[in-house]
Amino acid sequence: MKVIRTIGFFICLSASIILPGSVSAAEYDIIDLGTLGGYTGIAHDINDKRQVVGWSFVDSTYYHAFSYYDKKMTELVSVSNDIAQVLAINNNNQTVGWANIENAYSHAILYEKGKTTDLGTLGGGQSQAAGINDNGQIVGASDTGSDERHAFLFENGVMKDLGTLGGFFSEAYAINNYGQIVGVSETAAGEFHAFLFKDGTMTDLGTLGGMLSEAYGINDNGQIVGYSETSSGALHAFLYEKGKMKDIGTLGGADSFARAINNSGMIAGYSETGSGVNHAFLYKGAVMTDLGTLFGVKESRAFAINNMGQIVGWSDFDIAGWRHAVQWEPYVRLSAIR
Q1: What are the tens digits of pLDDT across the range 17-31?
Q2: What is the pLDDT of residues 107-142, one digit of tens each?
Q3: For 108, left (φ over 0), alpha (ψ -120 to 50), or beta?
Q4: Which of 134, 245, 323, 327 is the most exposed place for a label (fewest CB within 10 A)?
Q5: Are 130 and 87 in contact (CB under 8 A)?
Q6: Is 13 helix (H, G, I), strand (E, B) or coil?
């Protein structure tokens, strides 16, 4: 698999952060991780050992899960000619996602040591795993026997229904190493709000003034990120800490989405820019930085950040619409501060 490093002028401009009083600037080199042979590859997560997971088309129809490490993309999960996605990886190289297991139904899966384990459902037809912590606790969502969709926690071989905020729907997206879980749930009023599930209780995190919010990431300090509708109807990335939801703004456009936060409080996500396209961003020290794209083409997304500040997602590869899995790699450049 060919790896392309791009340290073009556009990257040096758009992916640099200079903080007041700092003696160095954090910059990012964008790396093309490629695909499994198809036209699209998406990197969804990266652990602290620099192992990346995601999914990629293998031809014009089917897509399979992959891992990427040491400049090599390896197919992880394939079920005949069906489809599979891996969405998260922990520091023990356990990965989770979903695959078509039987009768074209997708089931949550755990993949480790070359073996795929079907995690089952909450009684319904389909399920999907979205997050896993270093203790092997897995979260996601499943159809129930009553035709609802509920967030779950899978541990010790059992899938547990986490319930809802009063409605018929919930999904869990992430879990930290203390077992705190975040996601989205329908409320009794029919709105969809971000939640924190902690100590057996699901708590509504509210919104930035609108009727919708979702929480996608939580770090070991309990800081939560996601997006929310504002009172004006825009969708803005948020940081939730100390009981308050903070709007972290955009890259100049209308909407933004925070997808992950590391233990240093660095946030990765994507935002509409002033020119109307969406670019991956890094939010650090109250500054949102545009991470740019491969070759300066149209769009990019960031979905995960590890504790070394390495970020993964996808970028448009060319004007024909090919999208490749990418990694933004930090490096340090000494800078004179005027």
Answers
A1: 322 222 223 489 999
A2: 999 999 989 899 999 999 999 999 999 999 999 999
A3: beta
A4: 134
A5: yes
A6: helix
